[in-house]
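batch job 7 of whatever, protein = HEPN domain-containing protein
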Amino acid sequence: MKDCEAEKLIKRDFRTRGRVPVSLSTAERFLHSAQKNLEIEEYEMVQLAAYYSAFHTSSVKR
């Protein structure tokens, strides 16, 4: 990541820190949805919900 910053491919945006709790909450909701859909064997929805959960988790920066 530091290499990408050094090459100006990405930059830190400290305004995003306020969105961290929202992103984590959204990720948790999608994970719960994936678990519920797994119980009823709705595998396509499991895949979508799991993807969105991972997306929202990965959008949280350290």
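notes: The chain is about 65% helix and 0% strand.
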